[in-house]
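FIELD: query
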Amino acid sequence: MSVGEPFVTYLELRESTPEGEQGAGLSHSSSGLVLLHVLELAAAGEPRGAVTVVHEAGEHGGRYLELARGLAAAGWAVALPDLRGHGRSEGPRGHSNGIKEILRDLGDVQDHVAYRQPEAPKVLLGHGLGALWALAYACERPGDLAALVLLEPRLQPKFELPAKPSGLLKSFKRLAPGAPGKLGFGTAADPSDPLRHDVITLRAGEQAIEAAAKYGPRLSQLSMPAQTLAAAGEVVAWLERALPR
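FIELD: result
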Protein backbone atom coordinates (compact mmCIF):
# COMPACT_ATOMS: atom_id res chain seq x y z
CA MET A 1 0.00 0.00 0.00
CA SER A 2 1.36 3.42 -0.93
CA VAL A 3 1.83 6.27 1.53
CA GLY A 4 -0.99 8.83 1.44
CA GLU A 5 -0.87 12.60 1.64
CA PRO A 6 -0.17 14.32 4.96
CA PHE A 7 -3.09 15.88 6.79
CA VAL A 8 -3.27 18.61 9.44
CA THR A 9 -4.58 18.47 12.99
CA TYR A 10 -4.79 21.49 15.31
CA LEU A 11 -4.53 20.85 19.04
CA GLU A 12 -5.86 23.35 21.56
CA LEU A 13 -3.31 24.07 24.27
CA ARG A 14 -3.71 25.88 27.56
CA GLU A 15 -1.92 29.13 28.16
CA SER A 16 1.15 29.18 30.37
CA THR A 17 2.46 31.13 33.30
CA PRO A 18 5.85 32.82 32.78
CA GLU A 19 7.40 29.77 34.47
CA GLY A 20 5.80 27.36 32.01
CA GLU A 21 3.17 25.98 34.37
CA GLN A 22 -0.39 25.58 33.13
CA GLY A 23 -2.16 28.92 33.32
CA ALA A 24 -5.83 29.76 33.12
CA GLY A 25 -8.39 27.33 31.76
CA LEU A 26 -8.82 26.69 28.08
CA SER A 27 -10.21 29.80 26.44
CA HIS A 28 -11.18 30.87 22.98
CA SER A 29 -9.84 34.37 23.54
CA SER A 30 -6.71 35.31 21.63
CA SER A 31 -4.73 35.42 24.87
CA GLY A 32 -5.87 32.07 26.23
CA LEU A 33 -6.08 29.68 23.30
CA VAL A 34 -2.93 28.44 21.59
CA LEU A 35 -3.28 26.29 18.50
CA LEU A 36 -0.55 23.74 17.89
CA HIS A 37 -0.17 22.72 14.24
CA VAL A 38 0.47 18.99 13.77
CA LEU A 39 1.13 17.47 10.35
CA GLU A 40 0.28 13.76 10.31
CA LEU A 41 1.04 10.92 7.94
CA ALA A 42 -0.70 7.57 8.14
CA ALA A 43 1.27 4.35 7.96
CA ALA A 44 1.20 2.25 4.82
CA GLY A 45 -0.84 -0.81 5.77
CA GLU A 46 -1.38 -1.87 9.37
CA PRO A 47 0.55 0.57 11.60
CA ARG A 48 3.29 -0.96 13.71
CA GLY A 49 3.48 2.10 15.94
CA ALA A 50 3.65 5.88 15.98
CA VAL A 51 6.63 8.23 15.72
CA THR A 52 6.48 11.87 16.83
CA VAL A 53 9.24 14.05 15.38
CA VAL A 54 10.38 17.06 17.44
CA HIS A 55 11.97 19.57 15.09
CA GLU A 56 15.17 21.57 15.43
CA ALA A 57 14.93 25.11 16.82
CA GLY A 58 13.93 27.60 14.14
CA GLU A 59 12.49 24.81 11.99
CA HIS A 60 9.02 23.28 11.73
CA GLY A 61 7.48 19.86 11.22
CA GLY A 62 6.95 20.29 7.50
CA ARG A 63 10.70 20.19 6.89
CA TYR A 64 10.71 16.53 7.98
CA LEU A 65 8.25 15.22 5.41
CA GLU A 66 10.86 13.14 3.57
CA LEU A 67 11.79 11.40 6.83
CA ALA A 68 8.10 10.99 7.66
CA ARG A 69 7.36 9.36 4.30
CA GLY A 70 10.18 6.87 4.83
CA LEU A 71 8.82 6.01 8.27
CA ALA A 72 5.26 5.72 6.94
CA ALA A 73 6.40 3.41 4.14
CA ALA A 74 7.98 1.20 6.83
CA GLY A 75 4.66 0.99 8.67
CA TRP A 76 4.88 3.85 11.17
CA ALA A 77 2.25 6.53 11.63
CA VAL A 78 4.01 9.89 11.99
CA ALA A 79 3.18 13.17 13.78
CA LEU A 80 5.12 16.34 12.92
CA PRO A 81 4.18 19.05 15.44
CA ASP A 82 5.29 22.68 15.19
CA LEU A 83 6.32 23.73 18.69
CA ARG A 84 4.93 26.98 20.07
CA GLY A 85 6.61 29.94 18.42
CA HIS A 86 7.52 27.86 15.36
CA GLY A 87 6.01 27.08 11.99
CA ARG A 88 2.24 27.39 11.84
CA SER A 89 1.72 27.09 15.59
CA GLU A 90 0.85 30.17 17.59
CA GLY A 91 3.13 32.07 19.94
CA PRO A 92 5.91 34.69 19.59
CA ARG A 93 8.64 33.47 17.26
CA GLY A 94 11.39 31.56 19.01
CA HIS A 95 9.85 31.94 22.46
CA SER A 96 8.76 29.42 25.05
CA ASN A 97 8.02 29.81 28.73
CA GLY A 98 10.45 27.04 29.50
CA ILE A 99 10.92 23.31 29.63
CA LYS A 100 7.72 22.73 31.62
CA GLU A 101 5.66 24.29 28.83
CA ILE A 102 7.44 22.26 26.15
CA LEU A 103 6.91 19.00 28.04
CA ARG A 104 3.21 19.85 28.53
CA ASP A 105 2.83 20.47 24.81
CA LEU A 106 4.64 17.27 23.85
CA GLY A 107 2.43 15.46 26.33
CA ASP A 108 -0.66 16.78 24.55
CA VAL A 109 0.73 15.57 21.23
CA GLN A 110 1.46 12.14 22.73
CA ASP A 111 -2.05 11.98 24.19
CA HIS A 112 -3.42 12.74 20.73
CA VAL A 113 -1.26 10.00 19.19
CA ALA A 114 -2.32 7.55 21.90
CA TYR A 115 -5.98 8.36 21.22
CA ARG A 116 -5.51 7.36 17.59
CA GLN A 117 -3.44 4.25 18.40
CA PRO A 118 -3.92 3.32 22.06
CA GLU A 119 -2.04 0.01 21.96
CA ALA A 120 0.72 0.81 19.48
CA PRO A 121 4.30 1.50 20.67
CA LYS A 122 5.15 5.20 20.72
CA VAL A 123 8.54 6.56 19.63
CA LEU A 124 9.84 10.09 20.16
CA LEU A 125 12.41 11.31 17.65
CA GLY A 126 14.12 14.66 18.20
CA HIS A 127 16.47 16.57 15.93
CA GLY A 128 19.01 19.12 17.13
CA LEU A 129 17.54 21.09 20.01
CA GLY A 130 14.38 19.03 19.53
CA ALA A 131 16.45 16.02 20.59
CA LEU A 132 17.06 17.73 23.94
CA TRP A 133 13.31 18.23 24.40
CA ALA A 134 12.70 14.60 23.43
CA LEU A 135 15.30 13.43 25.95
CA ALA A 136 13.74 15.57 28.68
CA TYR A 137 10.33 14.07 27.92
CA ALA A 138 11.74 10.54 28.03
CA CYS A 139 13.30 11.26 31.43
CA GLU A 140 10.13 12.77 32.89
CA ARG A 141 7.52 10.49 31.31
CA PRO A 142 9.30 7.23 30.43
CA GLY A 143 6.10 5.20 30.61
CA ASP A 144 4.75 7.01 27.54
CA LEU A 145 7.48 5.78 25.19
CA ALA A 146 8.75 2.52 23.72
CA ALA A 147 11.93 4.08 22.28
CA LEU A 148 13.82 7.35 21.87
CA VAL A 149 15.84 8.54 18.87
CA LEU A 150 18.18 11.55 19.08
CA LEU A 151 19.19 12.83 15.66
CA GLU A 152 22.23 15.13 15.76
CA PRO A 153 21.37 16.22 19.31
CA ARG A 154 22.39 19.58 20.77
CA LEU A 155 23.20 18.54 24.30
CA GLN A 156 25.58 21.49 24.85
CA PRO A 157 23.62 24.32 23.22
CA LYS A 158 25.05 27.79 22.73
CA PHE A 159 23.15 30.81 21.47
CA GLU A 160 23.60 34.50 20.79
CA LEU A 161 21.31 35.65 23.60
CA PRO A 162 20.68 39.34 24.31
CA ALA A 163 23.19 40.71 26.78
CA LYS A 164 21.89 41.49 30.24
CA PRO A 165 22.59 44.98 31.62
CA SER A 166 25.63 45.26 33.87
CA GLY A 167 27.06 47.84 36.26
CA LEU A 168 24.76 50.72 37.22
CA LEU A 169 22.30 49.85 34.46
CA LYS A 170 21.63 46.51 36.14
CA SER A 171 19.71 48.25 38.91
CA PHE A 172 17.46 50.19 36.55
CA LYS A 173 16.92 47.98 33.54
CA ARG A 174 16.05 44.31 33.20
CA LEU A 175 15.67 42.33 30.00
CA ALA A 176 12.25 40.81 29.41
CA PRO A 177 12.08 37.00 29.09
CA GLY A 178 10.85 37.48 25.54
CA ALA A 179 13.82 39.63 24.48
CA PRO A 180 14.93 38.16 21.14
CA GLY A 181 18.34 36.67 20.47
CA LYS A 182 19.73 34.48 17.70
CA LEU A 183 20.16 30.74 17.52
CA GLY A 184 23.56 31.31 15.96
CA PHE A 185 24.07 27.83 14.53
CA GLY A 186 22.95 28.14 10.94
CA THR A 187 19.16 27.84 11.12
CA ALA A 188 18.67 31.12 9.32
CA ALA A 189 15.66 32.77 7.76
CA ASP A 190 15.03 31.28 4.33
CA PRO A 191 13.21 33.24 1.56
CA SER A 192 11.96 29.95 0.12
CA ASP A 193 10.52 28.93 3.50
CA PRO A 194 9.04 31.89 5.41
CA LEU A 195 8.26 29.63 8.38
CA ARG A 196 11.96 29.13 9.13
CA HIS A 197 13.68 31.59 11.49
CA ASP A 198 16.82 32.25 13.54
CA VAL A 199 15.16 33.59 16.71
CA ILE A 200 15.40 32.33 20.28
CA THR A 201 14.35 34.47 23.21
CA LEU A 202 16.22 34.98 26.47
CA ARG A 203 13.90 32.71 28.46
CA ALA A 204 13.87 29.96 25.83
CA GLY A 205 17.66 29.99 25.47
CA GLU A 206 18.37 29.98 29.20
CA GLN A 207 15.93 27.13 29.72
CA ALA A 208 17.56 25.10 26.94
CA ILE A 209 20.98 25.48 28.56
CA GLU A 210 19.58 24.46 31.95
CA ALA A 211 17.76 21.49 30.44
CA ALA A 212 20.95 20.27 28.76
CA ALA A 213 22.80 20.30 32.07
CA LYS A 214 19.93 18.48 33.80
CA TYR A 215 18.97 15.84 31.24
CA GLY A 216 22.12 15.26 29.18
CA PRO A 217 23.80 13.10 31.85
CA ARG A 218 20.63 11.01 32.19
CA LEU A 219 20.67 9.64 28.64
CA SER A 220 22.65 6.55 29.65
CA GLN A 221 20.24 5.87 32.52
CA LEU A 222 17.10 5.45 30.39
CA SER A 223 15.46 2.03 30.58
CA MET A 224 13.94 2.24 27.09
CA PRO A 225 15.88 1.63 23.85
CA ALA A 226 17.57 4.93 23.00
CA GLN A 227 19.98 5.79 20.22
CA THR A 228 21.92 8.82 18.98
CA LEU A 229 22.11 8.93 15.19
CA ALA A 230 23.99 11.17 12.78
CA ALA A 231 21.71 10.85 9.75
CA ALA A 232 17.97 10.64 9.16
CA GLY A 233 18.53 7.73 6.78
CA GLU A 234 19.55 5.55 9.73
CA VAL A 235 16.27 5.93 11.63
CA VAL A 236 14.13 3.25 9.96
CA ALA A 237 16.85 0.59 10.18
CA TRP A 238 17.50 1.30 13.86
CA LEU A 239 13.79 1.12 14.73
CA GLU A 240 13.58 -2.21 12.91
CA ARG A 241 16.28 -3.57 15.22
CA ALA A 242 15.07 -1.89 18.42
CA LEU A 243 11.35 -2.63 17.98
CA PRO A 244 11.00 -5.64 15.67
CA ARG A 245 7.53 -6.71 14.60
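FIELD: remark
Residues 88 and 101 are 18 Å apart (CA to CA).
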